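Incident review: delayed structure delivery

Summary: a single-chain prediction request sat in the queue longer than the usual turnaround. Root cause was a stuck worker, restarted by the on-call engineer. No data loss occurred. The affected request and its eventual output are reproduced below so the record is complete for anyone auditing the incident later.

Affected input:
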Amino acid sequence: MVTPDRRPRIRRLVLGDFRSYPALDLPLSGAPVVLAGHNGAGKTNLLEALSFFTPGKGFRRAELADCARDAGGGGWAVSVEVEDAAREVAGVQLGTGLEPVGGPASRRCRIDRATVPSAKGFADYLRVVWLTPAMDGLFAGPAAERRRFLDRIVLTVDSEHGTRVSALERALRNRNRVLEEGRLSGRVDAAWAEAAEREVAALGVAVAAARHETVTRLAALIALHRDPSSPFPWADIMVVGGVEALVANHPALDAEDRYRAMLRDSRGRDAAAGRTSIGPHLSDLAVRHGPKDAEAARSSTGEQKALLVGLVLASARLVAAMSGIAPLVLLDEIAAHFDPLRRSALYAELAALGGHVFMTGADPALFADLVEAERFEVTPGAVRPGG
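Output delivered after worker restart:
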């Protein structure tokens, strides 16, 4: 089992005009947190608030303005106080939110009230992983969802990955625009196309290399912790894509040259289709149910849920191994569909991870076996001890 050097704890959560909360100031002990309440009470909103302490749009992937309370002023704020005994850090404040100031609203990030350029700065204090009901269809859904899942894992261990992915998306749009202009004029400007493809190739190889390395490390960690008796079956994973194959078999510069040649050769086809037909933007995360040696998508609903939990737990172990930080684990409605055996096994796995865990559920009885948990009852706009 991975033993992380650092196990940060959230000691205080403060919200202002976030979703259903006009204001909330919630002190925490550092024990696992159980948030119980009826559907629609605001439990998921609390986890979403915590998910903003990592680059990106949070686990709902909502537009920032949509997180503002309907009756508020258009902005919102979330802050946490983090205690990290290994670094002798007690009470460092991380804050983020949306400040509508004149023009378009923009997100702000602060560490101990000092502004930082982006949420990437939070990675020095917190790493965050999550599992939500929206992810239940991951294996049978479109490849784009699995790419997003994989990129989230990569981002949790490499805070620059999101920047590279965004830059690649812009570079692909630029190449598509150059090809479209060439299609309309009857002649593609070779110099412009080559410049666009040089940028796509460099960024594409960097994105593919980060994915390939992360999946390789994750697969090795899964193999190391493989337990045939676990109620959460191990996953056999690999990233599938033309550029990822190049990265796996060639040095980076050679992979760039080969990818650039592929882009050049596909200009006519891509111009007619209006899109780039090869690249990391089309890659997939292939997942198999390890013990059954079967495609995850062909497994039963219950098997897929258990397999997904096992994969998220493995990704949390990878984060701890690579960063030295036990991640903050956010589990939304996690226990409702598990029998008592799986629930007990889940709680044991979470304890072994060492990270601060936040879980939601409608029925507080589902968490009865969770020892030393801090329990709260969530009602619309309010959180109180109990539940």
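Verification: The chain has a mean pLDDT of 93.
Action items: add queue-age alerting; document worker restart procedure.
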